[in-house]
Specification:
The chain is built from nine helices and eleven strands. It is of the alpha/beta class and 247 residues long. The protein has one domain: Rossmann fold (3-Layer(aba) Sandwich), CATH 3.40.50. Strand 10, helix 7 and strand 11 (214-218) form a beta-alpha-beta unit. Helix 2 (37-44) crosses helix 9 and helix 3 crosses helix 4 (86-93). The radius of gyration is 17 Å and the shape is globular.
Length: 247
């Protein structure tokens, strides 16, 4: 694990003479930005300016555009954070000049020319993570397996709220190749939930190692952004303090 975030947060590392104070967070599929409140609170109390993208989950292009709009409004170097599907989004959007570093939170990390769907090839199934697809091509997580597959370490009440407020994703987005891989030029960190049932653990570790990310393993479900906000915030702080010197 990283060092105590309260200690690290007392000073913010600079990039080219500018402090990294900005953090932009992108939520994944089947969720929205509200689950990041705990991370937001921990970061803002340490002096970070945090913005959370409400991406539409309608296509890779539109999710990247939503992220870019928020990045355009940042006044300097920024740490860009993505969970799950948003790993693909930040991989593409992270080429933005304001992005100093990337944090992948149990997230996908394709290379240029690859699709999200290709990342699953050769890895084990995830039988608790069941996606029901509507006639118009949107995916919802099956309500009967939602807690087991997405949020096993939450209370029944919290899992029910996440289940009933989930945001569907246009499944065709997973077949869209990324044009750019920001992790090839930007330093990356990865937080991996060791009890994640949305992805094969081998897949998560493989993707994080391939991009050269500094890896932190956390005992949590796929909903680690909600259940382990301190651990996730710690890694974001580490990225903010070290992105300028990482490469």
């Amino acid at each position: 694990m990283v060092a105590d975030a309260a200690t690290e947060g007392r000073s913010l590392m600079s990039t080219n003479g500018r402090e990294i104070k900005n953090v932009v967070i992108v939520h994944g599929a089947f969720a929205d930005g509200s689950g990041w409140r705990g991370v937001y609170d921990k970061l803002t109390t340490q002096g970070y300016r945090v913005k959370i993208v409400q991406n539409p989950l309608t296509s890779l292009e539109e999710d990247v555009a939503a992220t870019t709009r928020v990045l355009d409004k940042q006044d300097g170097p920024t740490i860009l954070v993505g969970h799950s599907w948003a790993g693909t989004v930040i991989t593409e959007a992270g080429v933005h000049p304001n992005v100093a570093g990337l944090v992948y939170v149990s997230a996908l990390a394709p290379d240029a020319g690859e699709t999200t769907a290709q990342q699953y090839e050769g890895f084990g199934p995830t039988p608790d993570f069941v996606i029901d697809v509507t006639e118009d091509g949107y995916g919802f997580l099956n309500p009967d397996t939602f807690k087991a597959g997405f949020a096993a370490d939450t209370s029944d009440a919290d899992a029910a709220f996440l289940r009933d407020s989930q945001a569907p994703v246009k499944m065709a987005a997973f077949e869209t190749p990324v044009k750019n891989a920001a992790w090839r030029d930007k330093p990356s960190w990865a937080v991996i939930a060791s009890e994640d049932r949305a992805f094969d653990q081998a897949m998560l570790q493989h993707m994080a190692k391939r991009i050269g990310a500094k890896i932190t393993n956390v005992s949590a479900s796929h909903a680690l952004f909600t259940t382990q906000p301190g651990a996730v915030a710690d890694v974001i702080v580490t990225a903010a303090q070290n992105a300028g010197n990482a490469r």
